[in-house]
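Appendix B, Record 12. Input sequence as logged:
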Amino acid sequence: MAELGKINYMPVKKWVDFGVYLEAGEDEILLPIRYVPEGTEPGDTLKVFLYRDSEDRIIATTELPLVQAGECAYLEVVQTTAVGAFLDWGLPKDLLVPFREQDQRMVVGMYYPVYVYIDPESQRLVGSSRLNRFISNDTLTVAEGDAVKLLVVQETDLGLKVVINHQHWGLLYHNEVFQDLGPGDAVRGYIKKIREENKIDVSLRREGFDEMPFAIDQLVRALRKEGGYLPLHDKSRPEDIYDALGMSKKVFKKAVGMLYRERRLLLEKEGIRLMPEE
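Logged structural output:
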């Protein structure tokens, strides 16, 4: 079933002078000729996005937007009018955010976190920066340890406020961020802990013991590359450890401990050294 505001895979039904018609159940949806890939034949399946044109008709395009219905993204305002702000979302027809859906008055040239949805009255795709209307932790669809998509929307005193899988709010603590991240960045992360009242802590690395084989291998390779010695230890700054190894201090200490217990590593005052046989 074809979905408005989503990327769909649709079979080509027939050619006409101004494009091709795509099969959508008992209906047909036009893909204008300027979007039809060269060599397209009836029966081919095309990847298209469905939206409404200026005459309110559902139409297809092979140009894909930066965000689909039911998703969040950071978008730039390119125009403001008497009806609201228009944002660049990767299609020739910009995305409208009506005044009533603006958490704060939008300004041309600025970027805002926006949720895209189908307006129930007009059946048109619109955006909203009033994210609390759409993002909620009342009923969670994630569990601790899950891999998730994160969109950074705000920096706070504790860390980075993120939207998880376009559905929930989460927090990424400052002391667990070892890369340059800020509002608008989209990254992969993991559910670290679900606290009281469904508050969610997230991490950029999977927590737990299953990360150790990778971390140990990474540490040994880094030591060998540096002649068997690294000036890192349990008092090193987290930033220095991440810059050298791409891992958190917590994971680093676990990996060092395991290698030490296996007698593959020497602990020195200012660093760590591989045993000669390594």
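The first helix runs from residue 212 to 225.
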